[in-house]
């Protein structure tokens, strides 16, 4: 009998020593990246001061910097990176395309149009976030509605629809940029390149990440089968249509939430799953939690660099992820071809 089709519940968390070591190393990396983010910046904070302020809050500059800036920003970066990496894993399975990333179906384009429209109207804060989420939601429904016309949708139709809708959003974005005043253009460009300077996350955002982890682990057996092809999955008793719907809307919501928090941060959802697969994490029982850890760590480290490279000025975090992501993807591609 096919072992993939007969995972027992007690086998769910059984992983090899090598896989456990990878998970442990990524957990350590996550802790180190968070500490690096909390200690990095224009205000010098030592490890002893950090621990003292965390457990014995005092009314001083270090405490204000930590509580009002660095801790919220670090949490936002880790949550955003985890959501993008998780969405990337799901999209690559759903579309059966290793080049798929969270933005391939035009979700970021819809969010960008919503956010830029809000900036053009002089709105900020919660209004800006809500406008971005509404734009992403509109794009999700638009792509699904076109691809699912007559109740018969395929991976190819979904992908082509996403590409076309994304191109349409790109045209609208260009119109908004060219018709905006100089003062608004800089804010728009920062949002388009990804920026965490004003990002804040609530319990609902972090809860969505935890829910995605739990749901991904529950579906990991089905994902392991689906990646081998829809015919194989159907022959093993999996409802492929229902699973695709779950994957599409789950990945879309994760992406929409991440874009709402930090704007269009690229390369996280593309390179993180590839890096982990090269490290041996091909089983989705391991790939999903490791993607969240590595994606969150990667964006936290990138944000730390964005804040310190040309301090006191700050770079958009999306610029740093692109600088790191392009050579990393080339290396991954050469390694994959060589193997």
What does this structure look like?
The structure is a single chain. The protein has helices spanning 17-39, 47-55, 61-94, 107-120, 126-147, 155-178, 182-193, 203-218, 220-226, 230-235, 240-262, 268-278, 284-308, 317-338. It has one domain: ABC transporter involved in vitamin B12 uptake, BtuC (Orthogonal Bundle), CATH 1.10.3470.10. Helices cover 73% and strands 0% of the residues. Helix 1 runs parallel beside helix 13 (284-308), helix 3 (61-94) packs antiparallel against helix 11 (240-262) and helix 12 crosses helix 13 (284-308). The chain contains 14 helices and no strands. It starts with 16 loop residues before the first helix and ends with a helix. It has 339 residues and is an all-alpha fold. It is globular.
Rounded radius of gyration (Å) = 21 Å
Uncertain ranges:
1-12
- Tell me the major beta sheet: none
CATH class: Mainly Alpha
Average pLDDT figure: 86
Overall tally of structural domains: 1
Number of helices: 14
Order of helices and strands: HHHHHHHHHHHHHH
């Amino acid at each position: 009998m096919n072992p993939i089709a007969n995972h027992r519940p007690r086998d769910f968390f059984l992983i090899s020593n090598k896989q456990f070591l990878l998970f442990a190393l990524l957990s350590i990396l996550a802790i180190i990246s968070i500490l690096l983010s909390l200690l990095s910046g224009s205000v010098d904070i030592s490890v002893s001061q950090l621990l003292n302020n965390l457990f014995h809050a005092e009314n001083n500059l270090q405490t204000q910097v930590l509580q009002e800036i660095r801790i919220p920003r670090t949490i936002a970066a880790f949550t955003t990176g985890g959501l993008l990496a998780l969405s990337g894993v799901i999209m690559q399975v759903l579309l059966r395309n290793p080049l798929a990333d969270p933005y391939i179906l035009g979700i970021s384009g819809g969010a960008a149009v919503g956010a830029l429209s809000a900036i053009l109207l002089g709105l900020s804060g919660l209004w800006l976030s809500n406008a971005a989420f509404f734009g992403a939601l509109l794009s999700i429904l638009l792509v699904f509605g076109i691809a699912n016309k007559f109740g018969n949708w395929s991976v190819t139709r979904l992908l082509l629809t996403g590409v076309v809708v994304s191109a349409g959003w790109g045209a609208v974005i260009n119109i908004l940029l060219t018709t905006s005043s100089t003062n608004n253009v800089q804010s728009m460009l920062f949002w388009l390149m990804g920026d965490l300077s004003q990002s804040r996350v609530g319990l609902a955002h972090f809860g969505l990440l935890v829910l995605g982890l739990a749901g991904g682990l529950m579906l990991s057996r089905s994902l392991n089968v689906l990646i081998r092809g829809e015919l194989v999955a159907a022959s093993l008793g999996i409802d492929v249509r229902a699973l695709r719907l779950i994957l599409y809307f789950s990945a879309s919501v994760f992406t929409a939430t991440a874009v709402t928090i930090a704007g269009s941060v690229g390369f996280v959802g593309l390179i993180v799953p590839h890096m982990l697969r090269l490290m041996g994490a091909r089983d989705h029982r391991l790939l999903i939690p490791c993607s969240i850890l590595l994606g969150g760590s990667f964006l936290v480290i990138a944000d730390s660099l964005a804040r310190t490279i040309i301090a006191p000025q700050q770079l958009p975090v999306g610029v740093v992820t692109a600088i790191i992501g392009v050579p990393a993807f080339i290396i991954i591609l050469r390694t994959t071809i060589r193997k």
